Amino acid sequence: MKFSGTKNVLLPIAFEDLGSGKDRIHPNIKLLEEVNLKEKLSINKKFSPRVIWRFFNPMIPDIAGDYEGINGVIKLFEVLDIITRGSFEYIPVRTITVGNELVMMHVKNRMNTYANQIEIDTILVWRIVNKKIVEVWNIPSVYNDQNPSL
Question: What's the pTM?
Answer without folding.
Answer: 0.79
